[in-house]
Amino acid sequence: MALRTLKKARLFFTKKLSIFAVIFRTVFSRSRTKPAGIRQAKFGMRNGLTKVTLLLLLLGSSNLAHAQNGSSSSNYLIYILLALAVLVFFALVVQVSDNLLNIEAKQIGAEKPGGSFSLFPDWSELIPSNLPEYVNGQLPVFALKKGYNISLEGEASSEKVEEARAKTYAVQPPNFVGLKPIPKLLVEEGDEVKAGDPLFFDKNMPDVKFCAPVSGEVIAINRGAKRAITEVVILADKTQKFREYESFDLEESSRQELVSYLLESGVWSMIRQRPFNVVPDPEEAPRDIFITTFDTAPLAPDLNLIVEGRGEDFQKGLDVLNKLTEGAVHLSLDARKDEAPSAIFTEAGNVKKYWFKGKHPAGNAGVQIHHIKPIGPGDKVWVLGVQEVITLGALFQQGKFVTERVVALTGSELKEPKYVRTHLGANLSDLLQDNLANDHVRIISGDVLSGDAKKEDSFLNFFDDQVTVIEEGDDFEMFGWLIPSSLRPTISRTFPNFLLPGDIKFKVDTNTHGEKRAFVVTHDYEKVLPMDIHTQQLMKAILINDFEQMEGLGIQELSEEDVAICEFVCTSKQPLQQILRQGLDTMREQG
Amino acid sequence: MKKGLLKFFKRIEPNKGTFIHTLYDGFFTFAFTPDETTKGGVHIRDGMDLKRLMVHVVLALQLAYLFGTYNIGHQHFLALGEHTGFLEAFHLKVFYGLVQLLPIWIVTHVVGLGIEFYYAYKKGHGIEEGFLVSGALIPLIMPPDIPLWILALSVAFAVWIGKEAFGGTGMNVLNIALLSRVFIFFAYPTDISGDEVWVAGLSAMESGAAASYDWFHLSVLNPLFDSFGWSLYDVKSTVVDGYTGATPLSLAFQGGWDNVTQVYTESQMWWGTIPGSIGETSKPLILIGALFMVVTGVADGRIMLAGVFGTAVMALLLNAWGATAFMEVPWYYQFYMGSFWFAIVFMATDPVTATSTAMGKWIYGFLIGFIGIIIRVMNPAYPEGWMLAILFMNVFAPLIDHYVLKSNMNRRLKRAKAVA
């Protein structure tokens, strides 16, 4: 009996509440009724803040009205308390109906990335965002507000891609995170190899073969500290010889067969697994696979140019990846520019596509995963670059291990910044021949934020499609902290950078512009990292080795390239990428 | 010029590892940004560093310094009933203020920087710039008549126990400047209690008491002014009848807002021509500093806004309660009195001791305002609360952060569950 009454009462209340809900919905968010309107990145935190502010504003205004009547009387206390009670009641009603709506949405399965089913609108939803026309509302859109674009001098001219043959190429074991320092070599100096022949493997994962990018003679095996192998150098043949693979029937074979084919062929080493950014374990299937089709890093190459003419290989690569995961292959598209990205990306099949708009690091896979489907505890996802997908596709399309790479040579210290077509692991001095404007420079494989400093006669890193050359900044600057002698990129408004024209390009050097200090400023990292992560607190947790906190604050969602922009803006000049790697390593060792 | 100076610096460089070298390094890095380049990690760095950050806070304080100096002199002559116009006897007031302020400033920096330098040398790191701001703040929150030995002790306590014991710049739990102030407040209550300390240079705070000038005023400044034919410091001046030197807060404490307005007008309190700590009296100038800091992004506007809001809420509640005359002071007039603006703009926003999360900053600021007014109005001994409220919230800041982080963690857990 009692139960029935209770049920009745609940039903009654739910009805009442849904009226509130309907009123609220119509008042606040008309755009939401469209099925695939603009959905902004949603942070629960900000949402909570909205609620509290609204409430407090109401509270404040009611108090003001009373207090300004002048004479003081304890009657007002009662009025205020009454008003408070009404407000609290109202807030409760709204809050409950909000929760009910969310539960409902979850039950009917309408919740998906980018969707918002709260009664409370995000701030960003109230302000219409100006998206380019080609974003037509079919796909989810993430407009990220935070971030910072560092625009530098020395952008590669996209008019043409020059052929650049390097004499030597190398595979560098330190490029792969998590490998033992001395991998097991399968070749010796003087051996002839074909493109695709295995060079070495890691003793922990003997199935994963690391293969020669080009055919030729192994001329050197260079070792670093403690005899760790740093480079396996190949003198390339004039005409490439390719290792013969048996043809593979994608339709008929099982996932296991596909995996062993990839392991043997050398393409497996091109996949990176998040968390930890390591070579994936062949035993484990990824939850999802993520591919970003644009790079927002400073002077980063335009991937539309790279994919030109390789559409079939790219699509084939996506098809293969689809067989490797139970989940989906997610492809992020660039919504920043006026013209639409290459049709190879926008028309790609067999994938889930998303538009991303925002400043750097909006193009980073880590940031995109955070918004599409974040990495939770125990999750393993894969990340591939566009050129790696092309290599994968070419293996199936052409039956060859094609490691052709379009590389952007960039930076203010190059005479002619340009795109070149070469192969994986090309020698840098060959690529940069007669192009250096100055010899007091830093050569970086990758971008200025997360790349590696290289000597001139060393090699392009495995995953890099960019070389940046900037000036070394080992010079004293008089009162540089107070009156900087040159323009420099910064997020700080203590510099009059906001007076500069929007399209200004900075000439930068490697000076630290200050000395390392303890963490002092708070909330700078959060201004540039569009993720719901407390970066500074996470870094402190890593430094004191607090596992629970590290995991709780989301260390598994980050990789070095994501915090690189935070490291750039850091007032205390802290080495965040190094700290993060230290944390990731300990997390990985602890399992 | 740069090359010459650099060469000169290199020539006088003392041996490494000596105390002198630590000192040298401090001044050298002040004159020249080092030639350090990035190693590992990012290859380029933002132009911002801690020195630049700190100096912008110091810049924001400059108006308060200018006005504070002048106001010391102005209040002194108001008490004597001479030159009562604000701009009358400008030279006398400026120099009087300077003679009073400079020793305070010098003692603060000698003691504070001395300890800072010593620890930098002992621990073998460069001199950190934390004391740039603390050293600029401390003189502004002191009464103009503070005995210098007490000041020296308080600064030593704050820097030693408050900062170096915890590991130096960026590691302290409590705000250094406020710690020095609270040290005086608890250790020497009799020396700085009452109304007398807020006006400098009176032998006693009663009608007819003589003004006290020392040899510098009489035998250096007076002859100088005399040679220009300007007015002079007059040893024979006495405190005018009926002058109490009470601050608006103590008046309000005794008899509510009516009692305050009998002595000071609203505009006097707003513009700051009232007795008080050196830098905190002029609200508009502090607000200009606040605007400067928020626009340049060196201080967090969230804390300031939340602080104003918290103060208003609590003042309103006290208005509603209305048990004493002080509680009945209309809530908006609470902003006219005391050092609320200085505290919330310059003290509460210290990034090291405040909460470090965005949400935490709203809570932190709000509670400072909320608690500060409670202490101001209800504390029977001393009618001002910001120092204690901020130090109190400094202690609680990690707790607030803890819960904000917990909520972030829970959100992540919940999301993981929802996905699974």
Topology:
The complex is a heterodimer of chains A (591) and B (420).
Chain A: H1 2-28, H2 44-67, H3 75-107, H4 123-126, E1 141-143, E2 157-163, E3 168-171, E4 184-185, E5 192-193, E6 198-202, E7 205-211, E8 216-223, E9 229-236, H5 255-265, E10 272-274, E11 289-292, H6 303-307, H7 311-324, E12 329-334, H8 343-346, E13 352-357, H9 365-372, E14 381-384, H10 386-398, E15 404-410, E16 418-423, H11 428-431, E17 441-445, E18 452-454, E19 466-471, E20 477-478, H12 525-528, H13 535-543, H14 547-552, H15 560-569, H16 576-590
Parallel strand pairs in A: 1-13, 2-16, 11-12, 11-14, 12-13, 15-19
Antiparallel strand pairs in A: 3-9, 4-6, 5-8, 6-7, 8-9, 10-14, 15-16, 17-18, 17-19
Chain B: H1 2-11, H2 19-31, E1 32-33, H3 50-60, H4 62-80, H5 90-123, H6 130-140, H7 148-163, H8 176-187, H9 189-192, H10 215-228, H11 248-263, H12 266-271, H13 283-296, H14 301-321, H15 340-347, H16 358-378, H17 386-419
Helix pairs in contact in B: 2-5, 3-6, 3-13, 4-5, 4-13, 5-6, 5-7, 5-10, 6-8, 7-8, 8-17, 13-15, 14-16, 16-17
Write structural notes for this entry.
The complex is a heterodimer of chains A (591) and B (420). With 591 residues, chain A is an alpha/beta fold. Among the domains of chain A are: 2-128, no CATH class; 512-591, no CATH class. Chain A has helices at residues 2-28, 44-67, 75-107, 123-126, 255-265, 303-307, 311-324, 343-346, 365-372, 386-398, 428-431, 525-528, 535-543, 547-552, 560-569, 576-590; strands at residues 141-143, 157-163, 168-171, 184-185, 192-193, 198-202, 205-211, 216-223, 229-236, 272-274, 289-292, 329-334, 352-357, 381-384, 404-410, 418-423, 441-445, 452-454, 466-471, 477-478. In chain A, the strands form four sheets. A six-stranded mixed β-sheet of chain A has the order 1-13-12-11-14-10. In chain A, strands 2-16-15-19-17-18 form a six-stranded mixed β-sheet, with no helix packed on it. A four-stranded antiparallel β-sheet of chain A has the order 3-9-8-5, with no helix packed on it. In chain A, β8 (216-223) and β9 form a beta hairpin. Chain A starts with a helix and ends with a helix. The radius of gyration of chain B is 24 Å and the shape is globular. In chain B, 63% of the residues lie in helices and 0% in strands. In chain B, α2 (19-31) crosses α5 (90-123). Chain B is mainly α. Chain B has 17 helices and one strand. At the A-B interface, α2, α3, β20, α15 and α16 of A face α1, β1, α3, α14 and α16 of B. β20 (477-478) of chain A pairs antiparallel with β1 of chain B.
